[in-house]
Design goal:
This protein is of the alpha/beta class. 28% of the residues lie in helices and 22% in strands. An 8-stranded mixed beta sheet has the order 3-2-1-4-5-6-10-8, with helices on both faces. Strand 1, helix 1 and strand 2 form a beta-alpha-beta unit. Residues 8-176 form the NAD(P)-binding domain.
């Protein structure tokens, strides 16, 4: 299996690469600038400059793109559309590091986390744009995609426990009633899905045990 991680120099990207490399997987980091990951193989290229030829030899592409400034939030949609177009109709799986704001908090799937009165206003534009990108992804029947949402509290410096619980469209909580997961445990879930490929054209979610 050959895996490529896009935007691999980011906090999530680096841990995903490390998890893949530690498992002995053939892993390539796609980065801008100097490679800061554990991958020995590198494609030095901006996401928006990637071509179908760049990606054609991989079995799995992991999209760890993220942006937070108001003038770039639209790129959550445009970057995902580009990647979908590049792997359209091919036997290449596209795994996406998603957000928690679009997870549902009721069984009817009518209310999302970002709709809550306690959801911070500062994060609503980001959650909205990521949610829109997911909705557009759902329409891509020509792509073998999987969107993986973290728990509501996604901890960059959280401990690696080595375990997690898998869910679907609804916000999960752990045994303490908390919706939390570390980037390291999220990386485990991401590489498990990369290896197993059991949730094609689905959104899944993860929380610590």
């Amino acid at each position: 299996m050959k895996i490529a991680v896009i935007c691999a120099n980011g906090k999530a990207g680096r841990l995903i690469v490390k998890e893949a490399v530690d498992r002995g997987l053939d892993t390539t980091a796609i980065v801008r600038g100097t490679n800061q990951t554990a991958a020995a193989k590198v494609i030095n290229k901006d996401l928006f400059d990637l071509s179908a030829k760049d990606l054609e030899d991989f079995d799995v592409i992991i999209d760890a793109f993220g942006t937070w400034t108001p003038d770039t939030l639209f790129q959550h949609c445009s970057s995902l559309k580009l990647l979908c177009d590049l792997v359209s109709g091919k036997n290449i799986r596209l795994l996406v590091v998603g957000g928690a704001g679009s997870l549902y908090v009721n069984s009817e799937h009518t209310v999302q986390v970002m709709d809550g009165s306690d959801f911070p206003d500062a994060f609503k534009p980001l959650a909205s744009n990521m949610g829109k990108a997911l909705e557009e992804l759902r329409s891509r029947n020509d792509v073998k995609w999987t969107y993986i949402s973290p728990a509501a509290d996604f901890r960059a410096d959280g401990a690696r426990t080595g375990s997690y619980r898998l869910g679907g469209e609804e916000l999960l909580v752990n045994s303490n009633g908390e919706s939390v997961i570390s980037y390291s445990d999220y990386a485990i879930a991401m590489i498990d899905e990369a290896v197993n490929g059991t949730h094609i054209q689905q959104r899944i979610s993860v929380v610590e045990n």
